[in-house]
Design a protein that fits this description.
Blueprint lengths: L1 H12 L23 H7 L10 E10 L2 H7 L11 E11 L4 E10 L2 H14 L10 E2 L8 E8 L6 E9 L2 E9 L7 H19 L11
Antiparallel strand pairs: 1-2, 2-3, 3-7, 4-5, 5-6, 6-7
Amino acid sequence: MRNYRWGVAIAAALLLPGCGGGAESDSGNGKAVALTKEQVRETLPDGEAMTGWKESARPTAVEMDKLYRSQACPIKNNAGCENSRFYGASTFRHDDNAATVTFLIIAYDSEQAAREAYDVLWDGYYGKRAGQRAKTFGIGPIGDERDARFGSSGFRGEPGAVTQTRVGTTLLWTEAASADKGGIDEDGVRDLATVLAKRARQAQNGDAPSAALDG
């Protein structure tokens, strides 16, 4: 359950005290909006959005600093975290099938910064999180950019999957794993990634994120 331990560790680390600020909103002129710290936290799915899942680590957002850059962008010189503002995570477990999922978000100060970081982080780190033999799969037309891989991320061949999506000024990830070989599948991972992307789009539009599983 390597992904589970990593996801909980990241989410737990985000519970450390952090300060944040606001961001100018330009949603009225059709441009992507730099989210505030509170919008980042609200974008992360919570218990109400995750029917059938139990919250392991509540949605938390922090101002990006040296510590969090090392966690969010753990590659040389923390590449991919340039012009990032906030970092957030929430984690859930599903007792029926021993599945876990961690949602992650990095909010940037511009759409260009998020776009430039996309390939750096996918190719340099997140795309490898589902194991060396993971295969790509489609998650549908969500976000402005998207990638997904499904493979074996555990020590005994347990299934694991990672998705990365860009929605405006944000990069989003879902990392799912299970102790049982049938605990997660592509359809389930696709649903989880879609919920996160929809909530990010709602935040970009200036609305309160409300997208939920089966909703």
